[in-house]
Amino acid sequence: MKWADLDAQWQVLGLGADELRVYEALLSTPSGTTRTALAQRLALSPRQLRNAFERLDDRGFTRPARGSGLPVPDAPATALRNLVHLHRAELLRREAELEELTGSVDRIAAQLMSGAPAPRTIGIETLRGRAEIAERVTSLVVSATEEVALLDRPPYAASEPDGMPAPINMAEPVRRGVRVRAVVDREGLSFQGRARGLNELAAQGVQIRLGVDLPTKLITVDRRMTLLPPTDAADPTATALVVSDSLLSNALVPLFEAVWERAVPIGSVTNSQVTDEDRELLTMLSSGLKDEAIARRLEIHVHTVRKRISRLMRELKAETRFQAGVQAAMRGWLTL
To answer: Which stretch of DSSP H or E encloses residue 150?
Structure first.
């Protein structure tokens, strides 16, 4: 996997591919290396290198250089801890914004559902019954030209994990060049076949993240139209709303983006939990211990340690041990 493939995941924590390449280079660069030499080694311009240094300093990955030398990189465990703490502070701020947006959505939905069906001239369309809702979902997805964004959470209909008479074909827009993003509530992974289906969608290009306690279900198409599915998908008389009014869409699109930013990126989804042994090994890796030191602490052969590290890196889709540590932290396998 290339750094560019991980760029979207790192951006969630405020870092891009250039910053991470520079950080990993700093960890292994001999003292006395000049900035010019490092820039040439990484094929970066002086400005790109300077910007990467500033970003790494802002995110707590490095300490200022003495004189004209290179910045001093913190140990991976310290850098990760600093980054996660900064990200948590940002999430607290966004959490407050998300609660405010969620309250607005709930009030809008309650007002619309309490009266007669809203006239379509104000940008609100009411759909009644699972068949009509499913048909409209399909037509919206097929009409997408730029992006489909989905928030998915239980409860689902007993017959279908998607809560619709037929599954939503989220891979079809990807084949047409449409960006498809989905945030799935972790609770939904307990449904039979759900994790396997998400794995298949991810393999076909659908960008999937895992969230906790999603505020609502919704499907947004091209940032111009949003469908709010019924809360009780098993109810055959359930009602859904299609919102095309710009004022309401300007509240619903930021709601999706706020949930997307706090969700955990995944390459694939699994129901299996990390073992205590793997968590212990990952913790040692993130602290910078060498294979031999890890083997001594675990009282196993160094070859066994390396095999376990290779397996974890494959599972985490990481090219380096540093990447493996961050991926494990993002999945909740490590507490930093």
So the answer is: strand 147-152
**3-class SS at 220?**
strand
pTM of the model: 0.50
Q: Which CATH number fits domain 272-330: 1.10.10.10, 2.60.34.10, 2.60.120.330, 3.40.50.12230?
A: 1.10.10.10
Q: Rounded to whole angstroms, how far apart are CA atoms 67 and 82?
A: 24
Q: What are phi and psi of 207, to 5 degrees?
A: -85, 120
Task: Identify which of 151, 254, 258, 268 has the alpha carbon closest to the alpha carbon of residue 205.
Answer: 268
d(CA 295, CA 305): 6
Is 98 in contact with 258 (CB distance < 8 Å)?
A: yes
- Mean predicted confidence (pLDDT) in 141-152: 92
Beta bridge partners of 149: 181, 220
Q: Is 160 helix (H, G, I), strand (E, B) or coil?
A: coil
Whole-Å CA distances, 58 to 53, 86, 96, 122 = 9, 10, 24, 46
